[in-house]
Amino acid sequence: MCDEDRLKLKAQINQQSDIVRKLKAAKGSKDKVTKISIPNAISVKDLTMLDNLLANISYIGGYEPSYADKAMYDVLRGVGWPSSMSHLTRWYQHIKSFSPVELEAFPTGVPTCNNLPPQVVGLLSTNNHGIDIGCKITEEVSHLLNLKAQLGTVEDGSGPHKLILKTPKGTRDYGPSQMAIRADVFNKIISVFKRHGAETIDTPIFELKEVLTGKYGEDSKLIYDLADQGGEILSLRYDLTVPFARYLAMNKISNIKRYHMAKVYRRDNPAMMRGRYREFYQCDFDIAGQYDPMIPDVECVRVVSEILTSLQLGDFLIKVNHRQLLDGLFEACGVPPDKFRTICSSVDKLDKSPWEEVHNEMVNEKGLSPAVADCIGKYVRLSGKTELVEQLLQDEMLVGQCKSARDGLEALRLFLKYCTLYGLQDQVSFDLSLARGLDYYTGVIYEAVLLSDTKTEHGESSGVGSIAGGGRYDNLVGMFDPKHKNVPCVGVSIGVERVFSVLEARLASNKTKVRTTEVEVFVASAQKNLLEDRMKLCKELWDSNIKAEHSYKRNPKLLAQLQYCEEMGIPLAAILGESELARGIVKLRHVVTRHEIEVQRENVAQAVRDLLTKASGNS
Amino acid sequence: MCDEDRLKLKAQINQQSDIVRKLKAAKGSKDKVTKISIPNAISVKDLTMLDNLLANISYIGGYEPSYADKAMYDVLRGVGWPSSMSHLTRWYQHIKSFSPVELEAFPTGVPTCNNLPPQVVGLLSTNNHGIDIGCKITEEVSHLLNLKAQLGTVEDGSGPHKLILKTPKGTRDYGPSQMAIRADVFNKIISVFKRHGAETIDTPIFELKEVLTGKYGEDSKLIYDLADQGGEILSLRYDLTVPFARYLAMNKISNIKRYHMAKVYRRDNPAMMRGRYREFYQCDFDIAGQYDPMIPDVECVRVVSEILTSLQLGDFLIKVNHRQLLDGLFEACGVPPDKFRTICSSVDKLDKSPWEEVHNEMVNEKGLSPAVADCIGKYVRLSGKTELVEQLLQDEMLVGQCKSARDGLEALRLFLKYCTLYGLQDQVSFDLSLARGLDYYTGVIYEAVLLSDTKTEHGESSGVGSIAGGGRYDNLVGMFDPKHKNVPCVGVSIGVERVFSVLEARLASNKTKVRTTEVEVFVASAQKNLLEDRMKLCKELWDSNIKAEHSYKRNPKLLAQLQYCEEMGIPLAAILGESELARGIVKLRHVVTRHEIEVQRENVAQAVRDLLTKASGNS
């Protein structure tokens, strides 16, 4: 940058400072919103600049909507541009989709404005018709800061562009301690699946869009699509069940017992404080095959019970019901068949809403007569064990003319009998209010709930909610088979994200530190110039399959090394010292007790192994 | 379908059969390409039908391009439609992007035509100007088949639409045995990482597009973008290194030793026969932090060596070089600095191409003078151990005026010394031809190659190629930090997909069957009506943490149960029989030897445990 340019820039800065001062004064004198009117002048160059900018970022100010978007939207209203400026068009349509109230709620903060390229700030400050003085100040301050940054950065040679560092909306990184908790949960769950002889499969993270089409009803709008870059139309998987059904049909597999733990994607409004993300894990166990009634169905419940017990989440209850019974009940009460599914979703709300509200919805929103709703209400508030099944089987009104209700009840009778054989009688409850949202269930349905309340990481109550759920879906695979050949399936999904929330909350409230490595011994040096000795000892330990670390510094301080061992929960330290090495020995230190023993240099690996075995025997 | 409609359809079929017959006759009489000219008539209804069709599938014929696309493209040339028909526009632009030669190469087969909706076939057969008779026959045959299918499917009540079942291009499902191999490889690799005290992290599968922008040079075109559905602009991750650098900068982490095993995405031309997919695993180990020279660098090599040894892939060699040495060498030979990177990628080809070809490329394509290329050639064909480093340090031409070359060589001297301390002297070779493609390396670079050739699953030679690679990249994190603060990093990536190919090929050639479950005992019944006894015994076994299964059939045949045990490699079968149960005993059968012992019913779990312990002690 030549001196002349610098002087010019400094003059611009002075001028800009004046504008900011004057605006601040104006704001001080009258605090109400004032419009500043400036003539409209948008060149093709400006539009091209905006299109290029928006090729890489979602909003004018970066990755979040801001006041700058609203301001620029106002500038561009009524302005046309060629359709080849697709990024600008995308952005314009997106901003246009917000309501005026939403637009007003865009943040006005300086941090966002700070990130605006100077040309954008220039365009806004010379063109905007509708900026109140407060925001005008923000913009002009940002303009000033940008000019200063330009002067500074041109001088130090780095670019003025700041990258906003974040993960996409609704997603997060998992750090080492979160991963350690997850690995522990996964291992516990997988060991239950393996105890039941399950295999595992994996499918691609994306599917042909048509595979997902028509499977999720209204929720289809939450599916993430991939961009059309030529070739196939793809979407990220929304759950693991539909890819599983596609896998069975495509590979003509007629029986398998499989588990699948993997991430799925939903463009939902994230509620991250409550542990709801757009990218999250699902953990499914399903048994596919033509088998005798209720035998695989009850094993799924046994698997849920073993998992919840193994994870030590506290008391739980597994509610069960049957889709055929629900349909029969609706039929017996006089619900028109085309309303079965919608009334089913009303019933499904009974775990969160009182009967009166659900009754209202049925009558006022879904058009049932009050008598029909009352009839449903008489039944769906019932829950119990086998004796309730027997009682309902005697209920002439319910089972007299309705095969479906009788079939459902008889299936449940068998199911509950098998539950007892599997030792589940105390954990399972027949609950007529359980309905489950998904359309594809055809038989038994279940849902496990935790009975004890737990606080989340953020101190909110995690509520007493569903932790696992599933059921029988005999017709899904047939939707993929060219000859509509069905493979009956029953399965369950463990709400692992909820499990993580509960465990993280518990660890946080206990202030328990999670170990993120499994290092057994740290090789430390007491003096300088022992790097090579440390490296030799590490080699021996690794050769002996002992988990060992040493400092990557040439001459680390002994205190720093020992502190590291304490922080990381490493049980042992092997301390190398000049005089000890001269005597052919090494000190082994128990990090917690600080107790030290001396061992022969050539026996360190064996001595470490012995100490670790002894310690694990004691614990 | 009423009789009248059926008769009409049958008449249509007869007529269509005539067309096919005549066309076949025409083809027989003159075998050269003949144009059939039919008047153009495209209605808005037709266009709407096409737009709807293309909303869900990528090509007219389904998920792969076919002759039908070319034919329809010819039909639609010069026809306009409203921009709201975005799917049709997408498809048209995509087909337009193919060269005439590529269009001609589209498959003409009947299978694709078979899947065409009848309206499309109708549109093609009444409108197409440029179909030769051969293809015309194909189309008309498909029309005929469609009419027949219509008659058939309307009769059996199912829809005429066939769903093509496939995974997206370049992806695949992993079945249980593939997953078992992967789990075994992952466990072996992870146990090495853990032996070195590494933590693990995970990042979202997609990133803000800008995070990936400008990191991969020309390969950026291979990045998968997500569709713009309002909100942020996202892309699937292309590797694990850039998300790692973003993670460090975002969380202001200045040191970590982490591994990350996860899938990455590249829109490359898949070569699935050679194990190259668009969705594949990467497995990275990196050490970030400001440490003393070469200490973390050499540990990465030690990790690679332990992993390759543990996976028993045969002999391997780890080549090392240094970016500073390469730059110094280029400088000393007189390469202009702006050509360093491009000459670097020429050198990188030396593992596959002879020196003469690389020399040619440098001179003829990249404009080096032959003398400069010769000078490079003199060096890059050298490889050796420490003595080569010492020899080059005496080479006045190389190190006389060039600090960079001397620094690189001295770094390598230290590196090789540390390698010896870690017992790696025989596995590591200093190789001046190693260059590595990625721009971001700043120091030592390495690459492990398998020395023994292995056939892939499909009988192709897997070649003697790279199985791991990495190096130091000190400036990548700074690209994300607002203040450009760098975190020096060094790391290595294990080519796990190649490992899987090699292992799968080996298993296939040994005809080894992989166990996909870990079931220890199968609970069988010798007669009918023992389901409840099987269930009770399973419960006891599961309660005792024994992996157990039984048949989901009420009354399975004993032979079928025992065959299942043999197929699945289950070591033990507990056989329940009426007379045995009456005597209070159960037979335990060793599946392979068919040896049976009798144990008390109440002691089955303990007896199974004892037999398994004994068996594992023997093996």
From TrEMBL, chains A, B:
<protein>
    <recommendedName>
        <fullName>histidine--tRNA ligase</fullName>
        <ecNumber>6.1.1.21</ecNumber>
    </recommendedName>
</protein>
<dbReference type="GO" id="GO:0005524">
    <property type="term" value="F:ATP binding"/>
</dbReference>
<keyword id="KW-0067">ATP-binding</keyword>
<dbReference type="GO" id="GO:0005739">
    <property type="term" value="C:mitochondrion"/>
</dbReference>
<dbReference type="InterPro" id="IPR033656">
    <property type="entry name" value="HisRS_anticodon"/>
</dbReference>
<dbReference type="GO" id="GO:0005829">
    <property type="term" value="C:cytosol"/>
</dbReference>
<dbReference type="InterPro" id="IPR036282">
    <property type="entry name" value="Glutathione-S-Trfase_C_sf"/>
</dbReference>
<dbReference type="InterPro" id="IPR004154">
    <property type="entry name" value="Anticodon-bd"/>
</dbReference>
<keyword id="KW-0436">Ligase</keyword>
<dbReference type="InterPro" id="IPR015807">
    <property type="entry name" value="His-tRNA-ligase"/>
</dbReference>
<dbReference type="InterPro" id="IPR041715">
    <property type="entry name" value="HisRS-like_core"/>
</dbReference>
<keyword id="KW-0030">Aminoacyl-tRNA synthetase</keyword>
<dbReference type="Pfam" id="PF03129">
    <property type="entry name" value="HGTP_anticodon"/>
</dbReference>
<dbReference type="InterPro" id="IPR036621">
    <property type="entry name" value="Anticodon-bd_dom_sf"/>
</dbReference>
<comment type="similarity">
    <text>Belongs to the class-II aminoacyl-tRNA synthetase family.</text>
</comment>
<keyword id="KW-0547">Nucleotide-binding</keyword>
<dbReference type="GO" id="GO:0004821">
    <property type="term" value="F:histidine-tRNA ligase activity"/>
</dbReference>
<dbReference type="GO" id="GO:0003723">
    <property type="term" value="F:RNA binding"/>
</dbReference>
<dbReference type="InterPro" id="IPR045864">
    <property type="entry name" value="aa-tRNA-synth_II/BPL/LPL"/>
</dbReference>
<dbReference type="InterPro" id="IPR006195">
    <property type="entry name" value="aa-tRNA-synth_II"/>
</dbReference>
<dbReference type="GO" id="GO:0032543">
    <property type="term" value="P:mitochondrial translation"/>
</dbReference>
<dbReference type="Pfam" id="PF13393">
    <property type="entry name" value="tRNA-synt_His"/>
</dbReference>
<feature type="domain" description="Aminoacyl-transfer RNA synthetases class-II family profile">
    <location>
        <begin position="143"/>
        <end position="503"/>
    </location>
</feature>
<keyword id="KW-0648">Protein biosynthesis</keyword>
<dbReference type="GO" id="GO:0006427">
    <property type="term" value="P:histidyl-tRNA aminoacylation"/>
</dbReference>
